[in-house]
Amino acid sequence: MSNANETTQTTPPPLRPGGANRFRGPVVKPKNFKGTLKRLWYYFGNERKMLSLIFLFIMVDGVLMLLAPYLIGKAVDAMSLNQGKVNFTILEVTIIVLTSAYVADAALTFLQGWLMAGVAQRVVKRLREAIFQKLQKLPVSFFDSRTHGELMSRLSNDVDNVSNTISQSTTQLMSGVIVIAGSLIMMIILSPILTLASLMTVPLVFLLTKTIAKRTSVFFKDQQVKLGQLNGHIEETISGIEVVKAFNHEGQVIEEFEAVNTKLREVGLKAQVWSGFLMPIMNVINNFGFAIVAVIGGVLAVKSIVTVGAIASFITYSRQFVRPLNDLANIFNILQSGVAGAERVFEIMDEPEEPADAKEAVELQHPQGHVVFENVSFGYRPDVPIIKNVNFEASVGSSTALVGPTGAGKTTIVNLLTRFYDVTEGRILLDGHDIRDYTRDSLRKCFGFVLQDTYLFSGTIKENIKYGKPDATDEEVVQAALMANADVFISRLPNKYETVLSENGGNLSQGQRQLLAIARVILARPSLLILDEATSSIDTRTELHIQEALLKLMENRTSFIIAHRLNTIRDADMIMVIDNGQIIEKGSHEQLMNAKGRYYQMFFNQFKNVEGALD
Predict the structure, then answer these.
(1) pTM higher than 0.85, yes or no?
(2) Are strands 558-562 and 425-430 parallel, antiparallel or unpaired?
(3) Per-residue pLDDT tens for 66-119?
(4) Residue boundaries of the structural domains of the chain
(5) What is the domain class of 32-349 according to CATH?
C-alpha cells in the first residue's frame, strides 16, 4: 500500500492508480487530457504571479495589435479626403503612432518570450526534481520490471516535451485568445456584413483542426513510446557492449536497432505529415475567406456603405482574427505532444511507493544483530512462491552462509532481511522485534553490502569509498583501502585517490571495482554484513588478503554470506543449503560433511580433483 499522506505533500493528488501494465505498448490517446493539464498546473507554483505579469504584457500587446489595423484604415482614408487631396497632418500623426505601436509590440514580444522561457525552465526543474525524488521512493520491484532506458526517456525526452509545450504554447495561447476576441469586436464595429462573410470559413477551420488533431494525438503518443523503447535498446547495448562483441552479436543488435528505429521513423513520419497538413490547408481556406471579403467589400464600397480605409482595416483585422486560429490549431498539435509526455511522467508519479513505515515504527539504535526467521514465505507473485516456510536463527556476531544452486532463493532471503521486499507470510525478527517495527532508513543503515555486481559512481575513488560515510577523514579512507588491499593499485594510479572514475568504474578492472566496494563497506563499519559473492571477481592471491580483511571486519558482527565457492565459507558458524526456496540442510561445515547429504555432494563435486580438499 502506498504512502498516500506522503504523496500528497510532495506531488499533486493522483488522478488514477498506478500500475505496471501501463508501460506495455502504445496508448492510442491521452487518457485524461484536462486532468493532465490540471496536474501540470500544480507545478507552476509561485510562477503563477509571473504568469499574471506576462498576461498583463500580452493584454497591452494585444491592444497595440488591435490599434494597428485601425490606424492603417485611417491612413488610407487620409489619402482620399478633400476630393483627392492627401491630409498630410492626419497621415503623419498616424504613421508616428503606428510606428510607435510596432516598436512597443516588438519590445513586449521579446519581453514575453524571455520571461516565459524562465517560467518554463523553472517549472520543468521542479517537475524533474519531483520525478527523480519519486524514483528514490519506488520499491526495487519497480526497477526490476523496467528498462533503464525507458525510465531515462521519461525523465529526459518526455520532460523536454513538456518544457517545449510550456515555452511555445502558453504565451501564444493567451495572446491568441485576446487577439481573436478583440479582432472580432472591431470587425463587427466596422461592418457586421463583412464580419458574417468572414466567419463563413471558421467552421471549416474547426472541422479541419478536430480531424487532424484526432490523428496526431495517436501518433504523437505512439512516437513517445517508440522513443522510450529505442532509448532502452541503446542503453542496454552500450552497457553490455563487451558481451555483444564477445558473442559476435554486432549484426543482431544492429538489426534490432534498425527495427525499433524504423518503427519510430514510421510513426514519427505519420505524426509530422498529419500535423503538417494543417497549415497549408488552413491557408487555402483563409485565402478563400479573404477573397469573399474583398468581393463583398468592393460592392459595399461602391455603394458608399463603407470606406476604402474601413475595408483595409477590416481585411487586416480579418487576418489577425484568422492567424491566431491557425496558431491555436498548431498549438493544439504541440499540446498533444506535451500532454503525451506529461502523462507518461505522471504515470511514474502515480506508481505506488514502498509501503509506509508503521505509525508506531521506531528508529533502530545500537543493533546487536540477533536475527530470527519465523515461518517466512515470499513470492514476487502471490501464486508463485519463491521462499517457503523458512526458519532459522543467527546469533549475535555469528556468520551464516547461504549456498545452493542459482535461483534457489539465497539473494531473496537477504532482500527480505533488508526490506527491499516484505514477507508474504511469517516474520523476521531483529533483536527480538519484527523488522517492520523499525523505520526502513534506520534498518538499512545497519547493513553493509558487498554484492557480486558492484556499482561505482562517477567521481573520484575517494568519493566512492566515502559513499557510506561521507564525513570520513582521508586517513580513514586510506586505512579502509589498506584493509581491503585496494591501496596497492590505487597508489599506482597517477592521481591516486583523486582519480576520477568513469561510469560504474569502467576504467578499472572488475576485481579492482570489487576491492573498492569492499573498502566502502569496511569504512562504513555497519553492524550487520551481507556478502553476496564478495570475492567472486578477485584472483586467488588477492582473495587470501580479502578473506583476512573480511574476517577482521566480521568480528563481533552478524554476517550473511552468499557463496558458490564453498572454500570461502568453511569457517562459517552455520551453513544453510537452499534449494527451491527451502532450507534442506543446515549446520557447520563439519556437521554437513559428516551428514554426507547435499552439501557434501556439492563440496565433493567442487574439490574432487584437489588433493586434500576433503580432509
Answers:
(1) no
(2) unpaired
(3) 887 878 777 777 776 555 676 777 778 888 888 888 888 888 888 888 888 888
(4) 32-349, 358-444+564-615
(5) mainly alpha
